[in-house]
Amino acid sequence: MNNSELLFERAQLFIPGGVNSPVRAFRSVGGTPLFFKSAKGSILTDVDDKNYIDYIGSWGPMILGHCHDPIVETLKKATENTTSFGAPTELEADIAELICEMVPAVEKVRMTNSGTEACMSAIRVARGYTNKEKFIKFEGNYHGHADAFLIKAGSGAITLGVPNSPGVTKGTAQDTLLAPYNDLSAVKKIIEDNPNQIAAIILEPVAGNMGCIPPKKGFLEGLRSLCNEHDIVLIFDEVMTGFRLSKGGASEYYGVTPDMVTLGKIIGGGLPVGAFGGKKEIMDMVAPVGPVYQAGTLSGNPIAMGCGYTLLKELNENPSIYSQLEENTAYFEKELRRVFDNKNLRYTINRVGSMISFHFDIDEVNNFDDACNANADLFKTLFHGVLKRGVYFAPSAFESLFLSTTHTKELLDSTIVAIEETLEEIL
Ligand SMILES: *Cc1c(COP(=O)(O)O)cnc(C)c1O
Fold first, then answer.
1. Does the reported pTM lie above 0.90?
2. Exposed site from 106, 114, 170, 221, fewest CB < 10 Å?
């Protein structure tokens, strides 16, 4: 047994499934998950000293690569002051001001410790603001693991085949209304069927938790008008897309301004951070200004804020980061198409900026049903083939791949070779 296998056996004795978040366990692709010990740029090193090109980037935060020097420096300095005050700091004002400058939809922002907390708080605030109780979410979109969202959820929830989790009460579930992604008429119908009852529509403006699925032309704009018409709070869950598609996220990328935005992943540079923000008048519903309670012992933690601030500042000051990511990911897409075409595969590649995913044996992937109809077995085989050759894709067909600025053409080319060799072997 190698070291990962030994560690996995031990971890399973004391941690459910041996992991602290389900997708990591490799359940949907089979085999033993790798245990890692270090990383630099886009290269991961596992506990058996084998290197891998990383296409997860901690699910997004490593947009400038692992152990990015300015972040390492910030962390070293920050830890000398203390790890937590539980009282206000200058850094919290700094990062809040920077977020408001970068994200057009955000006039005020509250920090949380995860994307889950950000989304559950945003829904609470929208309910408090509108005095209405129900909200609409889309099948296959993931908004973290709060009860109200675990109804046909994406990410690990689909991977494990439990999109509707036991433990979520019927009472909670009945206030979550579901629509297929990219289906505006379904949303209209739900609104008509529930007059004056819908507080919010929450969505991933580019879905990233059922593979990458872009919004169809007019979808975001259509939701915006419906929300205006019916006094519904439009929430873009930009935990994945925020600071990734552009410095202002998907709302800036597509030019559609929601009422609220939730953030996570990149915002903490790899430390546990989330945030929700939006229009002043909505955010002033939040305690202590307003009556909607929301809090956190470690929220705004100085180490996490320092790390996030350093990363966001660099993204804000260097727009070329986004053009470089676009160019390299477009190149990767072109090469993937070349290889898949050579092998006469039927496939769909969806890409927005540096988010990219492929689905086999299907011509279009616009929603959750399409994603489920793709050939997941071929993905699994490909996953293990490239893993053996030193390429670490997300261990599930329902996840997007993320590129960073450290994915050079050379690394992308080696990845393409690994894919070509694998297909050669299995087809
Ligand atoms: C990852 C993710 C979340 C949950 O964030 P956590 O930090 O894992 O709680 C919520 N929404 C989206 C779109 C995500 O990708």
1. yes
2. 170
